[in-house]
Amino acid sequence: MRSPDSPAPLQRFWSLLAAAPSAMLLLDYDGTLAPFHRDPARAYPYPGVAPLLERLGRLRGDRLAIVSGRALADLRPLLTLDIEPELWGCHGRERRLPDGHYSSAPLSAAAQRALAEAEGWTPAVHALGGRIERKPGSLAFHWRGFTPGHQRALERDLETRFAALAQAGALEWHAFDGGVELRAAGCDKGHAVRQVLGELEEGTCVAYLGDDHTDEDAFRALAGHGLRVLVRPKWRATAADLWLRPPEGLRAFLAHWADIREHHR
Questions:
Q1: What per-residue confidence (pLDDT) applies to 58?
Q2: CATH of segment(s) 109-184
Q3: Is 10 helix (H, G, I), strand (E, B) or coil?
Q4: Above 70 in pLDDT, residue 5?
Q5: Which residues of 101-135 are buried (b: 16+ CB within 10 A; e: fewer)?
Q6: For 30, phi and psi rounded to 5 degrees?
Q7: Would you give the end-to-end CA distance of the chain in angstroms?
Q8: Distance CA 22, CA 17 (A)
Q9: pLDDT of 6 over the 70 cut
Q10: What are the residue boundaries of the structural domains of the chain, listed by start?
Q11: For range 219-248, the mean pLDDT
Q12: Contact assessment for residue 88 and residue 67, using Cβ atoms and an 8 Å cutoff
């Protein structure tokens, strides 16, 4: 599926959205709302997306949430918005509500020790040209822009180190588009979706948009409860119900959502 003009199941969803007493839209950030950039601090939303998020964020009684693998401290500066959406960071470990309330899932002592050990790999990773992103509860190792051979050399080095990690089981290996993340067990984007679903009033219409393999946890958590949309230039196997190509398909989806809910008022 490429646009909001596609046939069922999207048309069925638009009908449900128009009739729903409330709505909840959850959106991944990198690769979904914003194109990937080798410098993550420059990965701003696609042109035209920020004004649409503003419209969605002003819909009284509806909710807008961004569910990212980034730390919230790194995510918020990229959102040049006058509204404050609900934010989930570090794959559901961090949460900030629109009123500013912040919460974070605690880390086990074993996970803290394992992350400290993995932090010691920094000189070797840098020597291979990799970049390390430190987050609450995880370390991400980036190789975006590498040649295949260069990427594989770093990946093999990390695999060897991970296999020898002293705190076995405290961290999970999660590949993503452009690297790998060593993440403390217990939180993923599915955790964020399940938490939100448990808070919604009956009849709320829900959708989740994401692009990466880490979004599959959210898609699975939403199964039977809402629309799951894969947003990426190329199709891949997924649990999602629809496929949209960014940025045109994304902008059209967000605009149509806003049109429907504004009319609903």
A1: 96
A2: 3.30.70
A3: helix
A4: no
A5: eeeeeebeebbebbbebbeebeeebeebebbebeb
A6: -65, 125
A7: 28
A8: 8
A9: no
A10: 10-104+187-264, 109-184
A11: 96
A12: yes
Sorted by sequence, the CB contacts under 8 Å of residue 25 that are 6+ apart come out as 56, 62, 63, 64, 65, 206, 207, 209, 257
Using CA atoms, how far residue 175 sits from 57, 67, 118, 172, 233, in Å, is: 31, 17, 16, 10, 19
The kind and range of the H/E element at 154 are helix 148-163
- Structural tokens at position 138: 């995880």
Q: Does the global pTM surpass 0.85? A: yes
* Amino acid sitting at position 234: K
Q: How far apart are CA 105 and CA 176, in angstroms?
A: 22
Residue 149: band (very low, low, confident or very high) from pLDDT cuts 50, 70, 90: very high
Instruction: Name, of 3-7, 143-147, 192-196, the range with top average pLDDT.
Output: 192-196
- Identify whether 136 is preceded by a cis peptide bond (ω within 30 of 0): no
- Give CA–CA dist 161/118, Å, rounded: 8
Integer angstrom CA distances of residue 105 from 188, 191, 231, 258: 11, 11, 28, 32
> Residues, the chain, total?
265
**Rounded distance, CA 248 to CA 75, Å?**
23
In order of 122, 132, 144, the CA distances from 129 in angstroms are 11, 10, 10
- Cβ-contact 32, 43 below 8 angstroms: no
Provide the CATH topology of domain 10-104+187-264.
Answer: Rossmann fold (3.40.50)
- Find out whether 229 and 208 touch, Cβ atoms under 8 Å: yes
